[in-house]
Amino acid sequence: MKKKKIPMRKCVACGENKAKKELIRIVKNKEGNVDVDLTGKMNGRGAYICSNSSCLEKTIKKKQLSKALDVEIPTEVFHKLDKMINSNNEQ
């Protein structure tokens, strides 16, 4: 039986390659709106970030998501990411 290939993606903050399911996807759609993609299937340009607070802080500080998606990231997206990461770490 053939092994199923696991899709790998790179975190914009730390540059580490991880399985797509381990990362959080942020999407910019055609209208330029930015949102967190929980399904991993939204249309648009995507960037990935690890689900830990150090990568989120690094991304905010160096504006790496803004550079990857070529658009200014609204603060509510960072708040949503922070809530998601903190709720994952508590479990």
What does this structure look like?
- The structure is a single chain.
- The mean pLDDT is 92.
- The protein has helices at residues 53-62, 64-69, 75-90; strands spanning 8-10, 17-19, 23-28, 34-37, 45-50.
- Strand 3 (23-28) and strand 4 (34-37) form a beta hairpin.
- It is 35% helix and 24% strand.
- The strands form two sheets. The protein has a three-stranded antiparallel sheet. Strands 1-2 form a two-stranded antiparallel ribbon.
- It has 91 residues and is α+β, with helices and mostly antiparallel strands.
Residue runs with pLDDT of under 50 for 5 or more positions: none
Assembly state here?
single chain
Quote the beta fraction: 15-25%
Task: Label the structural class.
Answer: alpha+beta
CATH fold group: Hypothetical Cytosolic Protein, Chain: A
The largest sheet, given as strand count, sense and whether it forms a barrel, is:
3 strands, antiparallel
* SSE succession: EEEEEHHH
State the CATH class: Alpha Beta
Gyration radius, rounded: 13 Å
Total of domains: 1
Question: In the CATH classification, which architecture applies?
Answer: 2-Layer Sandwich
The whole-number mean of residue pLDDT values reads 92
Instruction: Write down the overall geometry.
Output: globular
Brief characterization of the structure:
The protein has 91 residues and is α+β, with helices and mostly antiparallel strands. Helix content is 35%, strand content 24%. A hairpin with a 5-residue loop joins strand 3 and strand 4 (34-37).
